[in-house]
User: Fold these one by one.
Assistant:
Number 1:
Amino acid sequence: MAAVAKTIKVEIKRQSSPDAKAVTESFEIPYRPNMNITSLLGEIALNPKTITGADTTPITYDSNCLEEICGSCAMLINGKAMMACSALVDKLLGAHEHGQQPDLAKTITLAPLSKFPVVRDLAVDRSVLFENLKAVKAWVPIDGTYDLGAGPKQHPQIQEQRYPLSNCISCTICMEVCPQFNDATGFVGAATIAQAKLFNMDPAGSVLKEERLRALAGDGGIQECGFAQNCVQACPKGLPLTEAISDMGRDVFVQQVKDFFTR
Amino acid sequence: MAATPRIIVVGGGLAGLSAVIKIAEAGGTVDLFSIVPVKRSHSVCAQGGINAAKDLKGEGDTVLKHFDDTVYGGDFLANQTPVKAMTAQGPAIIDLLDRMGVPFNRTPEGLLDFRRFGGTLYQRTAFAGATTGQQLLYALDEQVRRFEAAGKVKKYEGWEFLSAVLGSKGEARGICAMDLRSMETRTFPADAIIVCTGGNGAIFGKSTNSVVCTGSAQSALYQQGAFYANGEFIQVHPTAIPGEDKLRLMSESARGEGGRVWVPRDRTDKRAAQSIPEADRYYFLEERYPKYGNLVPRDIATREIFKIVYEDNMGIDGQPMVYLDVSHLSPERQNKLEGILEIYEKFVGDDPRKVPMKIFPGMHYTMGGLWVDFNQQTNIPGIFAAGEADYSIHGANRLGANSLLSCIYGGFVAGPKAIEYAKALPAQEGDGGHAAELQRQNGFNKVLINNPGTENPFKIWRELGETMTKHATIVRYNVGLDEADAKIVELLDRYRNVNLSDKSQWANTSFAFTRQLWNMLQLARVIVKGARLRDESRGAHYKPDFPNREDEKFLKTTKAAFVDDAPQITYEEVDTQYITPRPRVYTST
């Protein structure tokens, strides 16, 4: 007698358009070892039927690189903000070590990030982050792209501080998990503050330092941070976010004092 | 014509952003189209570094040696004029990126650090940890954001290119694109367009490429009359992590920093990798290629791993896998590889700092692409191409860390050349072909969404990927290639019977995917036909039945044209004016 086919149970919060009502659909997907959430969503596209056998549509979600470097596929997995590509099914079902068996009685739940407008299903609009990066001028204002010779020397110690900040993949998970990131505060969020620090540390980028600090002062700026530290714990790339916020908080304060006495 | 030419750039990876920056800097205005927010483009996946002969290690490296390594590594199939220009510009491009704030690794004195990569004996590769592509893309993204804030660039993120709008003389007059949210299809006017849409890994199902790397835009242009060149040259990277949904790249920099590839000498050896003593390990690349060792070019390393597994039956535990070992490296060296070691740990669950990684080759890079002249212009006037989407730099095999350079070089040429072209462009006749092209695309969309068929497009795609991986990657036989073409023709036929389970008009990702699938199938035929007709072995193209390079017959660029719904192949002479082709032998020289 053939063994009963192993399956994974998934519940997905779906929404057909920004104004539509959210509904939950349940799926049962053939189990294979070493699956991740994006391969699981791919299985639904191959056979778009719910657990009751009713026809449905493939799930809409953002994804691109599938190796946690493009920042696209952030979503709520079992209620936690994570990247879908690096969320491994076996682990989510309790098999944390090699050789452990996943608990297939468990159900995996998927939902869109909660703090951004839903586009459809698990896809949300996170363009606010890119607007914030404009506001803090997160760039080095180079003179031009023609050959102007070598850049300034930079000690490896500076590079070692800048590189981790430059690993931010704009996934917005730090914003999702932040209690202060909401419409009431208008807080820019940890990612933007970390980028401001990155460019303030660059020898040439620091020419815009004061403008960046002023952009982070006032309502929605760095003062909104409640130091819950959720951001640094949730960041999939391990950015030193709280350190960046504290450093920038000090710099913003110094700038405000300076501006108060010179203006 | 217009005092301020209007240029459209399609694709926001390194090549596209480079072109945008050059145009904005010259005072032009740009509309930038990208399927994903440009900061999420596939360029972020590049890991190991970017080549430029700055000779900061006192080894006597020169741009001419970089030029020679690139041409030799590509088995002499690349036209030498653009390769020479690219390698000459390498050092200035690195300096520019440094000035843009890329956190390149540094020497104690504060200078740029360099590592060694495949196919060279020099430390020529500048790097930012093992996430160099990400860091470079971000630097260009930041510069483009600066121009965007200044009103010189308008981004259309979440729009997909469907086709070019062609005027009465067959010249570019704009593009037709689809909003991936509202599903609205529109045409946009332009005096010139630059296509920087990357590679075509999705044609092979699983690859190291990102989801958007379907080759759809290149294929659409090929079907509109553009030549597609050297399609059969597909790079299979020697070291990828096999996965359920994709093959994850394990950068050549792992070997550049001292990583070693091996299998147990005894194929029945059941011991854990760490407990197998040195004498019982077969470092087959080092033994077979004493001079280059683990850093032979990718096509060679890939074939050796393939042979170890399938001819010598020495894969780990009889599986198609070999060890890539960095566990013996110092913590400092491992630290320089942090980004990729984290990827392995996250997706496999083992710590590669302590346990050798298990890897196998995976489809990685598209050497072929849209045919372009030395100004990056395709044979369709006003359509330019740059980066992985064009065929121009890498010949029959790309050297590691040359792709980032070729993207930036290509964009830097295409941008100014597109402006030059646009300034001399006469006014269009009538509406420039906009209404007709919009009608054609809307017609296709209407048929597709209402098609009363039974075929699931994702199943067709899976079959395409399996066929292409089996017959058109590392080892190719004519009988298999014939089988593959017959299969693709069958899939094209079944496509006509496709059924979309999602018929909605909002953020319908399966609709967009199914449109891409048609283009993938057409481009797959180009790859297979080119491979079928090229009865020789050169670079990444390897036929055991024709094991030698045949310069007399095949030192030629393959050009595919879309004629009567099928690829028609012609050949063009290769520019070899600087370096005379010589045998490519890495065992000794």
Number 2:
Amino acid sequence: MFYRETGQFKTNYTDDMAIFPIRQDRIGIAIILAIALILPFVVSEFVLKTILLPFLALSVAVIGLNILTGYTGLISLGSAGFMGVGAYACYKLTTIFPEVNIIIWIFASGFFAAAVGVFFGLPSLRIKGLYLAVATLAAQFFLQWAFVRIPWLFNYNPSGAIEVPLRTLFGMPITGPTAELEVKYLICLGFVIGMTWLASNLVHGRIGRSWMAVRDMDIAAELMGIKLLNAKLLAFAVSSFFCGVSGALFVFLYLGGAEAGTEFAIRLSFLILFAVIIGGTGSMIGSFFGTAFIVALPTILKFGAPAIGIAITGATAEKIVLMIIGALTIYLLIVEPHGLARLWQIMKQKLRVWPFPY
Amino acid sequence: MSAVTSSALRPLLSPALMATLKGLGILAAIALAIVLLVHSGAMPKGSIGHKVLAAPFIDMWDLPDLLVQTLWEGLVAGVLYALIALGFVLIFKASGVFNFAQGIMVVFSALTLVGSYEIMTQRMGLPPGTVVAILALMIAIATMFVLAWLVERIVLRPLVNQNEIIMLMATVGLTYFLIGFGEYIFGGNPKVMITAQLGLPVGQTQFNILGGRVNIQHLDVAAAVIASIMIAGLAFFFQYTRIGRALRAVADSHKAALSVGISLNQIWVIVWFTAGVVALVTGIMWGARSDVSFALEIIALKALPVLILGGFTSVPGAIVGGLIIGIGEKMGEGYWGPLFGGGIETWLAYVIALGFLLFRPQGLFGEKIIERI
């Protein structure tokens, strides 16, 4: 009743190809965006710092991996490594060319991650099977080593870590220690919206269709004239690009300084993969659900459970988080391969026919 | 075609031997080229080319005892890699599952062993010693059986006939769950393996050979011997027992095996249990060389490059691949590592495997069903 497309007529092709063809969807997305815009001014600093900022930064990487895993049917275990490439590329670029705006460098750092990804992915993408998993694992360990052992990457800082410099936009500090959390949040939000828009257009267009064709049946895709290697390589490059941007956001806007050898470890790669599975493979909105779950669960367990009277220490909470995420991943793979996004769809369907059962 | 003509047509050397000879020939040519380059003065001492291509070999020649030591350490590490890879190959052959959790099973089984020993001696007041250690070993084996049964029941059975990528993701989920579960039960601190209590030899012997000293840990010798016995035992089990024959049948074709009355579910439990026992043995050996902690998981992931090298479905491949990776890694770290600032052990195995993917993607012994695109 509330969510019904009856009476909304499309009179030209532009309307038909719109991203949100239904009016209620447009209203809904406008409301979500409005909430996202005023959120930083309402919630506490703690929520902003521990949930919202990592959520925004990581969601870009999760979208990236979803393009690879959900839309193209390949698997990567090195997402964190490529995030690290983005972070270090951004750091090097902004220290070498400080006069160029940091926003441009955050975006540009994605290209470096994409190039590194293509370099590692090329040998394994020529072959069918799960070889990309091993190749990305190679990338993960090699990159982690490089971040620690190549001092040029962190400008020979004695601490061995990235120290995010102060950068401004229109005279307002957006990175570095003096930047306001709200400003960082809004910049992050801008990136997330832009990258989501980009990803959504990619997967809904010709390129995305070729990826899905490769995923569903590679022989048929080949017969239709899709070059498998090109499609897979492009998907992997785009995925790495998203990871790179996400890494730059993660360090420059969320952490504000990081020793990437520990930050971008293999467990983060796993977490991103779990976010994709839990949120729903092959779904944009699912990527956000998955990220929200992954980011919020530890905080909720650590700080929420004691608040309602369950005695739980931080260390125990961390272990329980690992168990919940692992078990939930297996459960969802068995019961609901489309993850939380499927629940969202079911809800929309119910709203469409409410108050009747069908 | 009669037998006579076919034998007459057979080439003098088999293709595999030819390929090996060709490879050796290329290696010899490269070696000769390096020697010529050094002697002609095209690569002066201290140049990058000299450092990378010549200096490590000169070091090897000058200090043969160090070379022997490095080779031995590589060999032992390689045997352990081979064991992890073996557990992986068993599961891959029998159920087609790319079992990412094999590494964590190594850690988990070792933790169960040490943890239950600790609980029995410290909380229940049993006297520390071999008897309790054996009891702990039994508990660990039983735990691996329960784990195998649960995995088959909860994870594999509902996911049967799913895409291989789904299976891989499920085992990654299993990995995560086992990490959390293990840390929850046994705590996250590194533990010391109960080496002496299990009757494994400790201590070391020094050999004076080649104008130097070579240290050999008794434990390493035991590890190599036990691993060899284990591999031989598994080979015997597969070749001559009824269950082994059923396992091979399942590996060849699920449908054909089902049609002659082999229970797939039962076979999967057995295979996961076997892989669990292999993991336990690996965990004991590796835990005795360092500590038992979740850092082992990273080392255990090195089974994956071993598999690329050896081929995913080949048991001999797992062994040879393990040895190559183990020795290559230690040699690389010892002789070429300083050029890169050390620590290249963490990724060298993977890079070797990637190089292999370029030239021989099916691995050394793998079936030639690799589909290029």
